[in-house]
Amino acid sequence: MTMRPLRATISVVALAALLVAASGSTWVVRSGDTLWSIARSSGTTVDQLVAINDIANPNLIRAGQTLRLSADADQSPDAGADDADDGSGGREDQPAGATHRVRPGDTLFSIARSNGTSVSELVRINGIANPNRIIVGQVLTVRAGNAVPAPKPAPAPKPAPVPTPGLTQAEVGALLERTARAHGVDPSLVKAVAWQESRWRNHVVSSSGARGIMQVMPSTGQWISNRLAGRTLDLDDPQDNVTAGVLYLRYLGTLTGSNERRLLASYFQGPNAVARHGVSPAGHRYVDQVQSHRQRFR
Fold first, then answer.
1. Cα-Cα-Cα-Cα dihedral of 208, 213, 218, 224, to 10°?
2. Do the beta carbons of residue 287 and residue 265 sit within 8 Å?
3. 182-218 confidence digits (pLDDT tens)
4. Do 79-141 and 169-297 share a fold?
5. 216 - beta bridge partners?
6. Burial of residue 201 (number of CB atoms within 10 Å: 0-12, 13-18, 19+)
7. Taking a C-beta distance cutoff of 8 angstroms, is the pair 44, 69 a contact?
8. Which candidate in 108, 163, 210, 254 could, as Cys together with 206 as Cys, close a disulfide (CB 3.0–4.6 Å)?
9. Which CATH class is domain 79-141?
10. DSSP characters for the chain?
11. Any idea where the domains of the chain sit in the sequence?
12. Residue 68's beta-bridge partner residues?
């Protein structure tokens, strides 16, 4: 007799938690969530979540992160409040001089796409030194203040990659070559992955927290330190960052039987995701890009 109320209470609590997590057309990531579990619970697919949220690594999401469940969803559940504050609204028909307040999960690419502009234009009019680093709460001008919106400018030339502070491009290349050979990994593969991940820049930090030349997540770096390196690796140190990436590539080569496409997809998606769900469309694109880069480093 006493168990029925308890079960009802538990059911109500579970339902309330689910409603909090899935608010309208967005989802607030909880501890233990994966893109696969979120997709299953919300009736969508992992590939759809990756595409509409501009997720670089489908195997890496953060508790508290807000994900859109459909392409027409607002950037965050309280987007209306933010719109009232900054007047931007994330719409393409904003008045000249409109602004956008950076929300969790935003990237310059997603902001540019939502506001009908380009990343290079956002960088130019906001004086952004590092396009890979923007701060939640930061207010960006998304359109210069003209009385009449100017015609869309021609795409700016792609800027040359900025070398790692303290290291020239040649020194980064030598570091990649030396470390790859020391651990028995093909240098052309290591160089191609590093180019795809960071353009050989050690100061780059992605929106998901991946760091350095090889774009290693801190949690992955800790695992590599404990299981593969036998010492603590500092991901902010170029040598340690490259060592972590090379050791991980070697481990993935063993795990995948040296199947290069699965190896590279595992570096991008995570080996568990590839094992469970196979290589995603985004993973295939990543592999194709790395293999294309590799030709120039052979």
1. 140
2. yes
3. 999 999 999 999 999 999 998 888 877 889 999 999 9
4. no
5. 211
6. buried
7. yes
8. 210
9. alpha beta
10. --HHHHHHHHHHHHHHHHHHHEETTEEE--TT--HHHHHHHHT--HHHHHHHHT-S-TT---TT-EEESSTTS-SSTTHHHHHHHHS-TT-TTPPTT-EEE--TT--HHHHHHHTT--HHHHHHHHT-S-TT---TT-EEE-S---SSPPPPPPPPPPPPPPPPTT--HHHHHHHHHHHHHHTT--HHHHHHHHHHHHSS-TT-B-TT--BTTTTB-HHHHHHHIIIIISS---TTSHHHHHHHHHHHHHHHHHHTTT-HHHHHHHHHH-HHHHHHH---HHHHHHHHHHHHHHHHH-
11. 12-68, 79-141, 169-297
12. 26
Cβ atoms of residues 179 and 242 within 8 Å: yes
Strand partners, 22: 27
Q: Please tell us whether the domain made up of 12-68 is placed in CATH 3.40.190.120.
A: no
The CATH architecture of the domain made up of 169-297 is: Orthogonal Bundle (1.10)
Q: State the residue for tokens 């820049």.
A: 201
Beta bridge partner(s), residue 139: 101
Predicted local confidence at residue 24, as pLDDT: 54
| 265 close to 279: Cβ distance less than 8 angstroms | yes
CA distance 14 to 25: 19
